[in-house]
Design brief:
Blueprint (H helix, E strand, L loop, with lengths): L16 E5 L4 H12 L3 E8 L9 H15 L3 E5 L1 H17 L6 H20 L4 E3 L4 E4 L2 E4 L16 H4 L2 E2 L7 H10 L21 H8 L5 E4 L5 E5 L14 E2 L10 E6 L4 E5 L10 E10 L6 E6 L7 E6 L2 E4 L10 E6 L2 E13 L1
Parallel strand pairs: 1-2, 1-4, 2-3, 4-7, 8-12
Antiparallel strand pairs: 5-6, 6-18, 8-9, 9-10, 11-12, 13-16, 13-18, 14-15, 14-17, 15-16, 17-18
Amino acid sequence: MKATWLTKHDTSTNKGRVFVGLSGGVDSAVSAALLQKEGYDVTGVFIRIALQGYPCTAGEDKLDAMRVAAHLRIPFKEIDLSEVYAKRVFAESIKEFERGRTPNPDALCNREIKFGLFFDWCMEQGARYVATGHYAQIKNGELHMGADAEKDQSYFLWAVPGAVLSKTLFPIGHLRKPEVRVRAQKFGLPNAERKDSQGLCFLGPISIDDMLHRELALVEGDVLGEAGEVVGRHEGTPAYTLGQRHGFTLFTQGPHAPAYYVIAKDAEFNTITVSTERFPRNSAEARVSLAECNWIGEVKDGLCMARYRYRQQLIPAHREGDLVVLEEPHYVPLGQSLVLYRGNRCLGGGVVDKSSLS
């Protein structure tokens, strides 16, 4: 391929008008550049979200997004969704944590903000498509994993309706991260060397653990062994999720002590139960009932694969409507997103409402 396309972009509009969510990062910037090269009429849009008391990177992020738009010579817009994010994503997530459940704020943000209000606003502004820098792919109206297994974000997109995905573009979904970096440099993008952002969606460099310690009135409680005996102390039940192996203190903990995992929580009595066994003994399967289900395209019952954590190894499963049977026993956290796959196709998923072992 000749190098002329790297500096001279096709500005024809025959493919339609697309609004690209420019976050300031390299992934969305390359997405915009690729779409412009392919002949779309591209507009860059910055979603501003700032919450009081949290590190706000919106100012710096917006400047980087504006620099990208200026470099590509595309229109630039901004929409402030701070208030809605605070109510629909942040506050709802905190309520779930307070109940002792484990919500997924990033999946909720995608449903309510990026592919909810933002998507609707773009359509009202005259966009034919909306594009983001997610590592995922859409094929024949179906959601598929991104080509980069280390960056695949299909897990966080399970709740996006199929009708929205049909008008959504993921321009870098077929690429791996190093390839995206190379393209950013070839396009001469001003943020080509910018580091990837870490932390929660829109909250900047802050972890869920940090957020919970800020927002919840955590009360210390007992750590129990499998027989119900007190073996240590913890910081407060809402701060833990099933499978967690840190954040609590054991009385017999030493440099050569085995790892202990949280296998149960009791919000009423403010206790957590731990075990050296990460997975349930004497059980063959886990039966998971889902709520708030979203199935993308035609999804039939039957064999599939499942995960309830990002980048978790896929678990053999069987779907029976909104009931999913995991063919390996797992302690599945209530409130978490359980997402199903067949091959590279993401079928959708739901919020874990009940879970039992058998």
